[in-house]
Description:
By secondary structure, this protein is an alpha/beta fold. The chain folds into three domains: 27-64 and 174-249, HypD, alpha/beta domain 1 (Rossmann fold, 3-Layer(aba) Sandwich), CATH 3.40.50.11750; 71-170 and 264-309, Rossmann fold, CATH 3.40.50; 325-366, no CATH class. The chain contains 15 helices and 13 strands. The strands form four sheets. It has a five-stranded parallel sheet. Strands 4-3-5-6 form a four-stranded parallel sheet, sandwiched between helices. The protein is globular and about 65 Å long. The protein starts with 9 loop residues before the first helix and ends in a 12-residue tail after the last helix. The relative contact order is 0.16. Residues 372-379 have low confidence and may be disordered.
Amino acid sequence: MKYVDEFRDGALARRIGDNIATEVDPSRDYSFMEFCGGHTHAIARYGVADLLPPNLRMIHGPGCPVCVLPIGRVDMALRLALDRGVMLCTYGDVMRVPASDGLSLIRAKALGADIRMVYSPLDALKLAGANPGRDVVFFAIGFETTTPPTALAIRQAERDGLENFSVLCSHVLTPAAITHILESPEVHDFRTVPIDGFVGPAHVSIVIGSRPYEGFAATYRKPVVIAGFEPLDVMQAILMLVRQVNDGRAEVENEFTRAVTRDGNARAQAMTADVLEVRETFEWRGLGQVPASALMIRERYAAFDAEKRFELNYRAVADHKQCECGAILRGVKRPTECKLFGNVCTPDTPMGSCMVSSEGACAAHYSYGRFRDIPVVAA
Ligand code: SF4
């Protein structure tokens, strides 16, 4: 398949791996964070880590949209479906995220709640049109990639005069999260998590462009290389990061030139800005409250805001005591350092959000067997 097969060439991957091994300085360590769950998935699936020298470590970041969703937001959706009788629509991965009281959306569906899996907010819009007597709520999650379709659906609902459609908006922003990580004590004081640079998101950057990363690359002196999701993209980005570090540069470079430009998709940005605005603060699983890191629906479209329509209040809920998702999302721990990994917690029985989506660090490690160092823990 064009643009896929040529980026999965094993011989080429080994050649890039050899270049990386030749160019790394053996007297120092390198640590790069892949922000995106898509990169985490590619690294685990294609064994990218096996091609890297031992003094180069990849750290998983918080860029898996399902993983960063705090329990409190899933609880809000659950209450709408269980107590308020709405038809709740959302993406498939969200359905299995563990919430309060041993519930998840899929368990609530088994209890009789009307919860539907959809592929896009426009599917939810169709359901609202077909069920005029029901309140239909789309539980919107994700980074800048999935935000424009939500904005489009809200505008379409207004145009169609759909009064029974609303959105529980939980969209989050990438640059704010990266800044938060760079400001965290673990990274800022260079103690537990030394980060020398970032592999920047692919799909998010198609929408927002590479420009938003320029500020913190300069301010924090951290190189960023935006990369596609195929294994050769990731390998090439790592080589570009090694070269920047060796040269003492901290620039934004774009490996994913076949899709990402400096300014991104202006139409998608304008549509998003028309419908959504930045929230003062938002809780991320693992990162806690992060200022200006999420979006909410503008007053002009308040009729489509489920939080306002159903007078919902957010209540923070702590994660499962033994789940290390928070530490993993901050890059402080690896999945194999969680005592529940692979025994109590598996993709079939996820105890935390990082085991739910294929983009989650725990699911990626589990699915592709990258856990040879797993400690033996009694279930
Ligand atoms: S293995 Fe399961 S319980 Fe442990 S950190 Fe990952 S998701 Fe949480």
